Amino acid sequence: MNTVILAEKPSQAKAYAEAFEVAKREKTHIELKPCSTFPDGAVITWGIGHLVGLKMPGEYRKEWKNWDIKNLPIIPAQFEYKVSEDKKVQFNAVKKLINNADVVINACDIDREGSNIFYSTFNMTGAKNKTIKRLWINSLEVDEIVKGFQSLQSNEKDLLMYSEAKTRQISDWLVGMNASPLYSLLLQNKGLNASLSIGRVQSPLVYMIYQHQKEIENFVSKPFFELVGHFKSTNGQYTGKAKVKTDTLKELISFLEEKNLVLNKEITGEVLEIETKEKHIKSPRLHSLSTLQKIANKRWKYSPSKVLEIMQSLYEKKIVTYPRTSINFITENEFVYLSNNVENYMQLINVDFTPNKVANKRYVDGTKVQEHYAIIPTKTIPSANTLNSLSVEEKHIYDEVLRNTLAMFHSDYLYEETKIVTAVNNVKFETVGKVEIEKGWKALFVQSDDEEHVENGSNKVLPSVSKDERVLSILQSKEGHTTPPKPYTEGDLVKVMKNAGKTVDDESDKEILNEVEGLGTEATRSSIIETIKKNGYITVTKNIVSVTNKGKILCEAIEGTLLASPVMTAKWEGKLKEIGTGKSSPENFISNIKAFIMNLIQEAPKKIGQVSNIEQTIKIEQANNNKGNCPCCKKGQMIDRKTFLGCSEYKNGCKFSINKIIATKKLTEKNINDLLEKGITSVIKGFKSKTDKSFDAKLKVTGDKVTFEFSK
Fold it and tell me: Which ranges carry the Topo IA-type catalytic domain (predicted)?
């Protein structure tokens, strides 16, 4: 039997090959020697992510190449695929291998995009009558790989996942290829000198951030007054707070007068209740990708996409399990190997405690595990050399995964909480204090005050008092001010997407959003955040997220439409999941998307015409993006296009542009201003040639190009 294994990327293929004996390595594939798993040997080849993608509009019809409202809607009668130009060599090698194979194994990532990459590639090869099997593993360790290849799954479930992924791909294409030109052209008619990218998931996310930002901007702080009691008992002093809050001091004084009380005057109070409880706080749940992204952003300011990138690297180094998981549980199988290795894990971070090796349903529950389990360390215990070779970021993330997993084996955090209720003329004041008894799992975490790892409560140590004890009391007012909601951090965005149900009022909509776990999936949320950053809709400064003027224009344009609604996206995601389980058909879904687009083309011009303040926002955006006059045609303005500056007279033939990075060197604002105003810069140091040699030169405007000028 001629067996071909298709991996998603070269690093994955390399990991598979390391589990077997290699006969030969080629540029496009690796040949394995015969073994018990593959009696006739096997060939591992790979994609480079997507080798195959959907064709662009202009490849279906000539008139679809350039944006024009009269050419909308863009809906091909039949969707067609093409091989990416820069990946043709690898595709041709894969095609040849698959066509000569008897058995083809899908060994791409175990999610719907992995299924999409495999089947879109396989179908493009034109191969027929092949036996297709699916590799399903959560770790790249040698024994897991071998075990996976020895117990391959059928492709029934895989085909459904591909159907779901393909439907998602086509629907996103339809929305993007129609909504983006529609809104861009309508807004360009109102003076916008830019294009907008509109997407099924990215647009509702931008709108949610925009709404939150507006809430902060429109917030008006108001004062409030609380009642505080300062008490002196036989054994010491303590402070309590009454459950009284008024808008003005006058209202607070009126309340006190009713109770025959005054501020700042000694009066006798009485201890009504003393309650002391021992409280146990269990360790945090095991990490899913989103909980890890949130804590890493809070602690080290890593973006969600950075965390996924680091996790992918650690996964390929075989020391953590599959990263793209939404599950916080493991099965009994994983618990067994973790228990067997717990002392080794403890040595890695130099901690010592007596581990509890009894499985707890808070962490170990096979009924809660679907395709993937929680993120945990693998059976492979990294050597000192391996750990030392990790980057600082990798060390941080591996350390967090390790400590989070070890916490499951540690004892509870234990403290004693004392509550004193003191009455002054029948007004009750509550005082809460906490005494730590045993650190337990918290001893594993240096930053033990992280919100993920701490129970809120007061750490005040209270004096010993007795019930009915008389205490000397002085009452005071405490003025506070209402505070606006906190701006989102980049780490918050993952949670905002996951908990999008909290932003809607309708109960049935809330239910839908909760059911599909909000916007996007665990595997896609970080890339969606990167997309809206790349499209210039948000900026992240010191980890704080802000909507740009371009983002505001988008939100003002789509306000009140389904494109701004997380509910629509959730309903679509719900239907896609039904396709993935065989309960719904792709044809029905695509038909609804087409109807949505037709309605959008009809309604968008009317809605944009009704937005009163959009022209003003466009003027602000244009002023910010206008960097000066074009030194080439002298007519146009140089517009900031994110990665380059381009002339506004482009459509009239001016091709002049300035890349912001030239020969690996990022240009400064002064460099750009010099080119626009003087036509030449001073000497810039540190350019790099194609052969990686460093050189210094001036930049000069020559005709419609920017060229180097070297000193004589």
Answer: 158-601
